[in-house]
Model the fold of this input.
Amino acid sequence: MTVSLSIENVTAHYGTTKVLEDLSLHIAEGELVSLLGSSGCGKTTTLRLVAGFLEPTAGRIMLGDRDLTRLPAHSRDIGLVFQTYALFPHLTVRDNVAFGLKQRGVSTKERNTRANDMIDRVGLNALADRYPANLSGGQRQRVALARALVIEPPLLMFDEPLSNLDAKLRVDMRVEIRRLQQANGTTALYVTHDQEEAFSISDRVAIMNAGRIMQLDAPEVLYSRPANAFVADFVGFENMIPMKAIAESGDAVRAEMPGGATLSLPKDTFTVPAQNFILATRPEGLLVAPSGDGIPTTLGLRTYLGRAYQYQCETPAGELKANGPLTQPFESGSNAVLIPQAEQCCLLPAEPA
Amino acid sequence: MQRKTHPLLIAFAVLTFLFLVGPLIIIIGASFSDTSFLTFPPRGLTLHWYQNAFEISAFKRTFLTSLMLAVGGTALSMCIGIPAAYAMARYRVELPRFLGNVFVLPILIPEIVLGFSLMKSLAMGINLPIMVSLLVGHALIVLPYCVRVVGASLNSFDFSIEEAAVSLGCPRWKAFFTVLLPNVKAGIIAGFILAFITSLNDVSVSIFLTGPGVSTLPIQLLAHMEQFFDPTIASVSVLLMGVTVAVMAIVERTLGLTFLTK
Amino acid sequence: MPPRLRAWALATPATLLVLLFLGLPVLSTFATTFGDPKGPFATYAAFFNSRFRTTVLWRTMEVALITTIVSVAVGFATAWVVAKTPGRLKSLLIIAAVFPLLTGVVVRSFAWLVILGKNGILNNFLIWIGAITEPFSMLYTQGSVIVAMIYLFVPLMILTLVGVLEGIPQDLTDAAASLGAKPSAAFRQVVLPMAVPGLIVGSVLVFTGSFTSYATPQLLGGERQMMMGTFLYQNAMVRFDWVAASTVAAIMVVVTLATVLVMSKLAHRLNPVAG
Done:
């Protein structure tokens, strides 16, 4: 049974503080959507609203054709994996996993069978009689996962499930989570502050800030075509140069940046969105060259990245980061130009001041 | 996002707190009563019983004894208890396991049994002066607070800080006073206050060890109650509550009261 | 100085204080009870053959047991409410529980003399509402001792259990709810089992505390409601029968230790992962 989740125009408050504003999000059947953002952006609040630990002050939450909005948490039938795992310390692994089945009135025999099967699937059959205190972090994570999956919920939710694991285990576990989610075809909502984690396992990612979704798209789109300066900054566009279009000739737009330098942007590769716009690039989107039509610069500190050199560059528009080829190292203090690489640059409308 | 609590349960809790606070309020009321037997609400108000309390020299004398014992016993207990707590936290491997249990004994052995046994062995057996026996008894009953409360904060102390101090050229004994003690200050204050109050209120040990001419305030109050039943006791009780309030104010200032639920 | 020596040097003074001034005297009290010429257990035989003495023992047990059960029930319900109370009000409630706890046992027992006495407030009140016409003495009954004991120990129970309940992470009850547990089921299957260690610690403190108390039975029970504590005192300081007093003391120690042992076993069985 797969269903979709619809969060419709939801607003939420903690006391008198508004933490979510008119948030809408639709997750299709079998889709995994991540909420990504720094702490306080409202991602966990959204999850708690769906789980039923919080009540929205406005809006509606639909799971398939069931209206969850006023349903108590224990009637929602959602599998939830907590950041702390929230395993019951007084129950063995098997009893932890069987807990949800017990609440559903499943007979002891059947729930032990189903719990054992699920424990098997997450590879913990040797540890079924242990208590959570005697498990490693990764094992606890698997128990939490098994406990959420065994009730065969129409919706799975993850609240920063990997943040307490070390780096290597994090990568293994996220593959595992994705595998189990896809195998069951369960709709899933995943909350994390880790961009790599969100991008690697999600069908779509919603980048959140201050209680709103800034952009909801496939990871590939977010990574290369951020829709606004916030998302661009979030996904690593370290250079943000405010520009103003000043002249237009046949096949290029001439734009001016702070400090007075100008740059010619060919129309076939750059689409200027407004008169005032932002040129956003990652360091690899600015190529360091001895001369050409680019941003004039004095090169500063050079660092070696393995695939390229990176330079701290003094420009009229401020300090920028740019990469240069390994074949042609430049000395600190030399003059060069930074040439924007169209496929790795984004032109964004300027934020209203 | 607090879950709702059943109104009946709340009503029950309100009644419990009335039950807890009511009797103390009644004592306060009774201490101002102008009738010689205790009634509440008082018919008329008087400070006579407070005047009486201050005039009875036995109360003043025994209060001073109690104060001396509480300060002396707690100080003695802290002086030997803190090093023991430190040794147990710092040298877990070097000391046998049962040592921790030794310091639980004063809680495990009923105080009244301790009092009786001390009377038999110290006061009668080796003829120790009353004041010394009392001091030993009080040091014993407060020792668990010194060892365990201080020990609790030592257990969360990162001993590498101490080693850092030593590696920076600070002698070990100096590191103990300048690095370790300031970091477990909260535990020491908490332990001291609990110990002080316990000693000040003690009946079961003191009742056996007090003797001619030397008594503590709680024992004196008991003796007074057997002969007279008038509001003087109430006024002394209110004064003692004043001491408790003062102590709680100190706790609140230094630690916050929530530590008492831990 | 090698670490082992340093460790012992630091721990020795406190260890000596306990062993010399608690261990030896208590052992000598025990030794006294076995010194009867009629045989090593003659004093115990005498104790358990005396109707009066066994009555004192059973009465003390009964009072301690009732006190414990009522304190647990009242303490748990109240602690539950306190733990759920937000912010400043909670601090106020904690203060209201701590204050009686820090007030001496003599003062707190005295309060019940004032309330339950013949000219006491309760009698005044009952006459005033017309429930009775003549004051009657409520003191020196088992009931008066039990009420005062409950008064003595409820704050301790509340504070112990507030700590325990607050130590149960919100995540666990949330997790139970997300797995479909109704609030009542979550309480039975998660909260209660996790509170068991605290409940047991609290019960042991209350039971042993009331079993060995002296001042409260002395003031509110008197001669008529003799309990182990007052009986020990009477034997030692009024009748100067130190052998009998030592026997009472030994029985008190045995009951206390047995309670602690049995209850910690029970705690372990009910909640194998606690401590």
